[in-house]
Design goal:
Length: 334
C-alpha cells in the first residue's frame, strides 16, 4: 500500500492536541449540583448509560482519524510489464562433406563438434527463427526457418555425411540456398552462419555470385573455417567377410580457402573466423551470439487502485452514529 498525499498525516498532530485539550477540560464542563451528603448517592451503581457516556467522543475521534487517512489517499498498486521481443532470423549452413569426419576436434570429429556447438547455440536463443541447410557437392534444406527448437535439435542430431548427394564442396550453391531461405524474411537482422572445412570445388553457382546475392538482400554472413590445414587422416569404414565393421584411415590433404571466407564476411558486414578446436568453435558461436542479440524492449505500466472510499465511509458512519447517540440514548441533561 502507498499513500498519494502522505502530508495529510500531519493533521493528526493538531487532532491529538485538540482531543487532549477536550479531555483535560472535560471535568470543568461537567454540570453538578450540591448535596448535603453523598453517603446514599455513593451506594448507587452507574448504569449502561453512565458507563458509555464517553462513547460519542470516542466515535468522533475515530471518525476524524479515518477521515485523515482517507485524505492521505491510500492506494494499492499493481505493476504490469510488457515485453516487446524482436527476434533474428538465422540460417546455419553446415558442411557435411567427407572431410568433416577428420578426427582433429572433440568429441569425435569436425562434424560432431559442429553439431554439438550448434546445439548449445540454439539452446541460448530466445525468440529467433533458425533454419538448417547442409551441403557437400550439392545442398538442401533440412529445416526451414522455425521457432520449433525441439524439431530443429532433432534434425540436427540426425545430420551425417551421406552418399545420397553429390560429393565435393559446393560453397556457392550452399550459400545461395541459405540466402534463399532469408530473402523474404521481414526480420530486421538476417544472418547466415556458414561452416566449412574445404574449398569450393563443385556446384553450378560460384561463391562470388552467391556473395553478391546475399549483399543485395542485406544478409550478413559469419563464415567459419573448420579444422587445420595440411595432411590429415580420413577415417574409412568397411565391412569384412564376417560382417564386422572395420575402420582404417586414408591420407588426404585438408585446405580451407580463407580468402573466400574473409570475402564472404567483409562484403556482407559479418565476420570471418577460424576454428581449429572445439573450444575455439564454441568461442566463435559465443561471439556471434553477442553480436547478434535478440532485442527485448520492456515497458512497465503501474495501475493504482484508490482505497480511500472505505475509510471515508466508516468515518462518516461513525460520526453520524456519535451525533445520534449524543442526541438520543446518551444525551446529557444539565
Amino acid at each position: 500500500m502507498s499513500w498519494a498525499s502522505a502530508w495529510a498525516f500531519f493533521l493528526l498532530i493538531p487532532t491529538a492536541v485538540l482531543f487532549a485539550y477536550i479531555i483535560y477540560t472535560y471535568g470543568s464542563r461537567t454540570p453538578f449540583f450540591k448535596f448535603s451528603s453523598l453517603r446514599e448517592i455513593s451506594k448507587l451503581s452507574g448504569g449502561l448509560r453512565v458507563r458509555t457516556k464517553h462513547l460519542p467522543l470516542a466515535l468522533k475521534l475515530i471518525s476524524l482519524i479515518l477521515a485523515i487517512i482517507a485524505l492521505a489517499r491510500p492506494q494499492q498498486s499493481s505493476v504490469k510489464i510488457k515485453r516487446n521481443i524482436e527476434g533474428i532470423d538465422i540460417v546455419v549452413a553446415l558442411d557435411i562433406s567427407d572431410s568433416m569426419l577428420i578426427e582433429d576436434m572433440r568429441p569425435e570429429n569436425r562434424l560432431e563438434s559442429s553439431k554439438l556447438t550448434i546445439k548449445r547455440f540454439v539452446e541460448k536463443r530466445i525468440s529467433d527463427r533458425i533454419g538448417l541447410v547442409v551441403f557437400s557437392g550439392e545442398s538442401y534444406t533440412r529445416v526451414p526457418l522455425t521457432l520449433d527448437y525441439p524439431l530443429l535439435q532433432k534434425s540436427l542430431a540426425e545430420v551425417k555425411t551421406t552418399r545420397n548427394i553429390k560429393l565435393g564442396t559446393a560453397i556457392g550453391v550452399a550459400l545461395t540456398n541459405a540466402v534463399g531461405r532469408l530473402k523474404d524474411s521481414t526480420a530486421k537482422s538476417r544472418v547466415v552462419i556458414f561452416l566449412t572445412d574445404g574449398e569450393n570445388n563443385s556446384g553450378t553457382i560460384d561463391p562470388e555470385t552467391a556473395i553478391e546475392i546475399a549483399k543485395g538482400y542485406g544478409i550478413k554472413i559469419y563464415s567459419i573455417g573448420m579444422g587445420k590445414d595440411g595432411q590429415a587422416q580420413l577415417p574409412i569404414y568397411t565391412t569384412d567377410s564376417r560382417g564386422r565393421k572395420r575402420k582404417y584411415y586414408r591420407p588426404m590433404h585438408s585446405k580451407i580457402n580463407e580468402e573466400l571466407l574473409n570475402l564472404m564476411a567483409s562484403e556482407t558486414g559479418g565476420r570471418s573466423y577460424r576454428a581449429i578446436s572445439t573450444n575455439a568453435l564454441e568461442n566463435v558461436f559465443k561471439d556471434i551470439g553477442e553480436l547478434e542479440k535478440t532485442k527485448i524492449e520492456t515497458t512497465q505500466f503501474t495501475r493504482y487502485e484508490e482505497l480511500y472510499f472505505n475509510y471515508l465511509f466508516w468515518a462518516m458512519l461513525l460520526y453520524v452514529a456519535s451525533v445520534l447517540l449524543s442526541n438520543s440514548l446518551l444525551r446529557r441533561f444539565p
